[in-house]
Amino acid sequence: MGSITIIMLMAVLVWSITLETCIARRGRHWRQNHRSSSDLSDSLLSKKPKSHSYHHSSHNNNHNHHHKSKPKPKPKLKTPPKSDHNKSPVVSPPPKVQPPSLPPPKGSKVFNVMDFGAKGDGKCDDTKAFEAAWAAACKVEASMMIIPPEYTFLVGPISFSGPYCQANIVFQIDGTIIAPTDSKSWGKGLMWWIDFTKLKGIKVQGKGVIDGRGSGWWQQDYPFIDGETKLIVPLNNSVPMPIRSEFDWKMPSIKPTALRFYGSVGVEVSGITIQNSPQCHLKFDNCVDVLVHDMAVSSPGDSPNTDGIHLQNTRDVLIHSSTLACGDDCISIQTGCSNVYIHNVNCGPGHGISIGSLGKDSTKACVSNITVRDVAMHNTMTGVRIKTWQGGVGSVKGILFSNIQLNEVQLPIVIDQFYCDHTTCKNQTSAVAVEGVTYERIKGTYTVKPVHFACSDDFPCVDVQLSGIELKPVQERYHMYDPFCWQTFGELNSPTLPPIDCLQIGKPARNRVQSDHDVC
């Protein structure tokens, strides 16, 4: 009995010890998993969680509840070096990146020559870049080819041509284009420098400059003889000095026109300046529907054969609001021209506005319906002029010169059917007929002769109308002469100053009739 009692007491003791241990363990784990929010926040800030390893470490560190584990120290942050506020920070400049010389993206309508490899330094030849830009612009209707400002482009002889180009292309010139001055670039000689051929709706516009740098050609044309030069006799028989060139080498005898349009319809030129062309500055040949406005031509008054604007076989032309200074005709109207209207133009120096010369080498010439009005001329050789060669055929008719203001013009009004730019020319009976020419309100000053009408014996000038002519002499350095008329018939519709008594009133008693082949 006693032994049984002892065994039972020992079993109860073992059970109680086990129960206490379980309760103690249960309390320890409850405290482990139910800490305060402040303790939890401190723990998250003191160290970063590491997935499952974070909990595994917690269990290991707290395995003995009698000894709390020490918290790990917070990692020290590396402090940046102290900056010296007296010194500016050194910042490396970004590397310069040259824009790629690639054509614009597909579908673009703007083609800048710089994107096609042009340098624009005035030294490197940019001809190929211009050709490449045009080839791209030519394929896109209503595209624009840009010559940007603040650059100078050296460009050799170049042609921008159709007929496969799209219509309504704009050639925007805001920079400067210069011609080469070495004879090698021109070979044996070319008729033009910049050429637009067989295009529809082409515009050349902008604020830029086309510079032909033509003095190398000018010096080779001395002395330059205009057909009316023989009428101008200096008082002291002085002879002008030849033009000096900055270039020593000899240029080809064939001289290029600076800017030419051929076989095109709907041509417009505006805003630009064309200067120092070797020959004509701006030429239209075989074109229809031409508009020129708000542009300028500039070359010395003694630069030979440098017409400002030259029209040939071209009709439906409007020229206005432009300033033309050159060494030959400010505007020259050649054979095949009709429906030409010119107004509000400043001309000088130069040789005035001329119809002709026509009929050279016995050719046929036809010019009709020409109006020149509201024009100012200063220091020009001639004012308004018609000039034809002996031996030619055809006619000039329907001409109006109105409201022309003259300042010290040598020969204000001229019709010359004996035009000759050589020392001597052969006398011939046939001539380009001149009829229906009206001069009204021609006023200002002259320095040689107010009127010179020299018409053919076989084909006299007929229907010449004069009104409102007021021309006063200004003595300069030339011999002065009275009005001259030969075989000129028409009407004086008002008194003239000076009196033009040499004009024959009415019509000639006999007048040779042109054959059907010769009539325009």
TrEMBL record:
GO biological process annotation, one example: cell wall organization
UniProtKB keywords: Cell wall, Cell wall biogenesis/degradation, Glycosidase, Hydrolase, Secreted, Signal
Coiled coil location: none
Biased composition (Pro residues): 91-106
Bias-annotated ranges (Basic residues): 47-79
Region (Disordered): 29-108
InterPro entries in the cross-refs: Glyco_hydro_28 (IPR000743), PbH1 (IPR006626), Pectin_lyas_fold (IPR012334), Pectin_lyase_fold/virulence (IPR011050)
Protein's name in the database: Polygalacturonase
Species in which this protein is naturally found: Brassica carinata (Ethiopian mustard)
